[in-house]
Design brief:
Number of domains: 1
CATH class: Alpha Beta
Structural class: alpha/beta
Largest sheet: 12 strands, mixed
CATH topology: TIM Barrel
Shape: globular
Number of strands: 12
Amino acid sequence: MEPIKIMPCLDMKNGRVVKGVHFVDIKDAGDPVENAAFYQTEGANELAMLDIAATLENRKTRLEWVKKVSSVLTIPLTVGGGISSLDDIEMVLGAGASRVSMNSAAVKNPELVRQAARKFGAAKITVAIDAKRNKAMPSGFELVVSGGTLPVAKDAVAWAKTCQELGAGVILPTSMDGDGTKAGYDIAYTKAISSAVTLPVVASGGAGKLEDFYEAVVNGGASILLAASVFHFRMLKIEDVKEYLRAKGLTVAE
């Protein structure tokens, strides 16, 4: 298995880092450039920056945010939010992102994933899959788009398989049931996705304590551990997480 990576996430709104619970109740969490520099110094292996209002506001990712944040980083930066065309991807990568993350646009136009992987390489294409529990779905998880506001009556796990077939390089599943709660990752959802694909899976949504990170790897099958609240509000240090995982016998990236 690949070494485990730690990935803080900057959710962006109005030029600031914010954090919500279940995608709402948004609180300010500081300046993006300061946060990015701090996390790199602290030992983050990668960083995510998601423009959480872009799709809802029907606009593109703010390229100036990407430029400013990427200018202080040497670690990979994944950028998502409002990316809906090959031109968008080109501009975001040109602004300094290492990868892009697509969500709503990929659901609307699956061919975009195939075209993007062909043009830019699979390693640069992450597909984010937001879901919530729905017993009517074969896997029990329904795909949700538009910043978590719109269920689309599609099975989230089946969609993950499709994304792999289309050429995506990474899958980033977020459980709306767990987002921001600090009650632990939704292991059942993470595992359902990781069992269905052979791609790296990012655990996302709900990390609150050291054990949660271990569970995401051992029981959830994730190899990249994304977290926001616990890092933004300094509840945990990245190095603490890495040391804990190593003490549990896991191989963790430096």
